[in-house]
Each structure stands twice: as structure tokens, then as C-alpha cells.
Amino acid sequence: MQKEAQQWKRLKEWGRHCMNKQVVIIGAGGHGKVIADIVRKSGDRVLGFLDDNTALPEKIEGIPVLGCANDYIKYPDAEFIIAIGNAAIRRQIAEQLNGVRWYTAIHPCAVISSMGVKIGEGSAVMANAVINPCASIGRHCIVNTASVIEHDDVIADYVHISVGAKLGGMVSVGEQTWVGIGAVVNNNISVYNRCIIGAGAVVVKDIKESGTYVGVPARKIK
Fold first, then answer.
1. Beta pairing class for 195-197 and 178-179
2. Which of 2, 31, 187, 193 is the most interior residue, by most CB within 10 Å?
3. Radius of gyration of the chain (CA)
């Protein structure tokens, strides 16, 4: 029995090893390093970075720089994630990399409800982020460190919720919007597409057009 138990343990370990994903990260900046840390903490393998900056060293924190973004075709068995904060660039790259498999990075220390939460492909959820019941996160979003997505929120594609930002319940955020560090969006608020919500801003009424909004309460600036 003991021998059989040991064999079964080895089989389970081998199975876990086989399920590990191989991940290529597009973008070798600071955000890329955070994503690499999440991938490793999730038990998956970082193959390397792709970045169009030719001045980068051969390795970053021991992880190889494999080439430019167009070199993705060299890694047909890998999954990819875009580690670039700018939403427009993130969208452009996602549309260019036709047919790849996207990796969704979720830090083990993130707190995600088991009740009806949806997280789209290619998105990243950082350490200590909280996503509460029935929240929906789109594709290629960033839910950054210690941010809060409350119940029934709807976050569209390519949105970036910055460090420590807090969205109340029943909030909707439109495509390519950036919610800045420490910003707060009150309950039952709708934020339009392609907005920038400044750091520390407090949104207390619907935002109905694209633009940059700052202050308490948040107001549009030119």
C-alpha cells in the first residue's frame, strides 16, 4: 500500500508539472516584471519577454528578452499576456497577435468571489485585489494591486483599474478607461469609454463623454 501511495503521489506531481503553462510576456517594463512574478507564483513558467525596445539587456531579472513583439510566431505552444499599461497600445497588440492563446494572470493573494465572477482572457489581477460577487471583468484588463471591484460591477475590455482604486457596487466602466491610483467611483455610476480618472479623484455622478476627470468631486478638464 505504501509503495502504491508513493507511485500515486509521483503521478499527481507529474500531472501538475504537465499542466504548467508556458507564458510569453509582451512588454518588459515594470508592469512586465509584476506579471512575471504572478506567472511564477501561479506555478507556470515564464519563457521570456517580447519588447520592441532594442536597447534592452539580454535578460531582465534572469528572464530572457526573446525579441520584438512580432517574434510571437516563434512560440506557437506558448500563451501570451500583454504587460503594457497604455490601453490603446494594449488593444493594438491584441488585435495584431491573431490566433494566439491568451494567458490570464491572477495573483494567488487576490481575493476573488466564487459567486458569478467573470474575468476575460488576457487580463491581470494583482496581489490583494478584491473582486466581489457577480462582477464582470473584460478582456486584457488590469486590476492592479489592492484595488477593489465591488459586486455586480461591469468592466469593459482594455480597462486599467490602478493601485488602490475602489469601485462601489453596480458600477460600469467603458472600454479603454484608466481609473487612476486611489480613485473612488461611487455606487451605481456609469463611466464612459476612453476616460482617464485622475489619481485620488472621486466620481459621484455618471460620466457621459470621453475625457480626463480629476478632483473631488471629479470634473472634466481640457
1. parallel
2. 31
3. 19
Could you give the CA distance from residue 53 to residue 47 in angstroms, rounded to a whole number? 18
Tell me if 164 sits within 8 A of 181, measured CB to CB.
yes
Q: Say which amino acid occupies 22.
A: Q
CB 71 within 8 A of CB 64: no
- In angstroms, how far apart are the furthest CA atoms of the chain? 74
At position 58, the amino acid (one-letter code) is: E
Give the separation between CA 103 and CA 111, rounded to whole angstroms.
19
- Alpha-carbon distance 55 to 143, whole Å? 29
512574478: which residue's cell? Answer: 37
Q: Which residues are catalytic?
A: 151
Q: How confident is the model at residue 99 (pLDDT cuts 50, 70, 90)?
A: confident
Give the pLDDT band (50/70/90) at residue 14.
very low
Write down the residue that cell numbers 507556470 correspond to: 44
Number of H helices, E strands in the chain: 3, 25
CB 174 within 8 A of CB 156: yes
Q: Find all residues with CB under 8 Å of 147, minimum gap 6, and list them.
A: 126, 129, 130, 161, 162, 163, 164, 165, 166, 167
Q: What percent of the chain has pLDDT over 90?
A: 89
